[in-house]
Write a structure and sequence with these properties.
- Helix content is 36%, strand content 12%.
- It is of the alpha/beta class.
- The protein is elongated and about 60 Å long.
- It starts with 11 loop residues before the first helix and ends in a 7-residue tail after the last strand.
- 44% of the residues are buried.
- The N terminus is likely disordered.
Length: 284
């Protein structure tokens, strides 16, 4: 923890905001484009023709509706960004720079770590005070080209208070979708904050989320064993917060000790990411 810390954050939510204030470096990212959410053989140009506004005035109106916070307009604008139409780039250029940037929290980790459940719990708690949005990335099948978008199924209980958008990777590597950056920009313009960005299940080198998020949360689970050591040269290096999820299981103490041992190898006095233990299924 930084020397200026006056006390241990009481909750995971407090920890996120503490890290955002003390250790946040926002890095530039190129505009992403072209992604499908569902299995389809429709050409991107056809998709663009279906959702592309007819004229510049329509684009201006759509941008104004997004800034006004209209959910339907936000959904259409993100679909436009996914289509890679020229109109989507123009739409992004019409958005004003927000007076206050949205806090972007990236949630990443291996498959089965409980990322979706953790995101759902965070969304519920943030929604009580803020206009939170969730961007959930799902893998695309290399066989069929389709995506289940199962995060929308898991989060049905929070969709009344939270804007939830799912995207398929469609072969884009790094744990994100090509249109993720544009989607975040649009959500921010619509007045949504914080933005919870959930990656697909990732491995050692899939760290694209660090370029998009202000705070990167790496979710681990007991039983990983030597996997922690094998990951330390990649994903483990980008964490602003380590979360040991499913910490009610055997092996949680061992994993915590392994993380602390890994952190002890850093330079003396260097800031270290906090380690937070959670049981997302019960909200602990």
């Amino acid at each position: 923890m930084p020397a200026c810390c006056t006390g241990k954050p009481a909750t995971f939510k407090d920890t996120v905001f503490f890290v955002a204030e003390q250790n946040c470096i926002v890095m530039p990212i190129a505009s992403f484009s072209a992604v499908r959410e569902l299995s389809s053989n429709v050409d991107d140009r056809e998709v663009g023709s279906l959702i592309q506004p007819a004229n510049p005035d329509a684009l201006q109106q759509l941008a104004a509706r997004v800034v006004a916070g209209e959910t339907a307009a936000l959904a259409r604008a993100i679909s436009l960004a996914e289509s890679d139409a020229a109109a989507s780039r123009e739409l992004l250029s019409l958005l004003p720079i927000p007076a206050e940037a949205a806090l972007r929290i990236g949630i990443t980790g291996a498959p089965g770590a409980g990322k979706s459940t953790l995101v759902e719990q965070l969304a519920r708690r943030y929604a009580a005070e803020q206009k939170v949005a969730v961007l959930a990335i799902d893998p695309t099948s290399p066989i069929t080209g389709g995506a289940l978008l199962g995060d929308r199924i898991r989060m049905q209980g929070v969709e009344q208070q939270v804007y939830v958008r799912s995207m398929a990777t469609r072969g884009f590597t790094g744990g994100l979708a090509r249109a993720a950056a544009a989607a975040c920009r649009l959500m921010e313009a619509a007045g949504r904050s914080p933005l919870l960005i959930e990656t697909v299940g990732v491995g050692q080198e899939e760290t694209e989320v660090v370029r998009l998020a202000d705070v990167t949360v790496v979710v681990l689970t007991p039983g990983m064993g030597d996997d922690v050591q094998s990951m330390k040269a990649g994903l483990m290096e980008v964490a602003d917060i380590f979360v040991i999820n499913k910490s009610d299981r055997e092996g949680a103490e061992r994993l915590h000790a392994e993380l602390q041992a890994m952190q002890s190898l850093a330079d003396a006095g260097a800031w270290q990411p906090p380690i937070v233990r959670t049981v997302a299924t019960s909200g602990e």
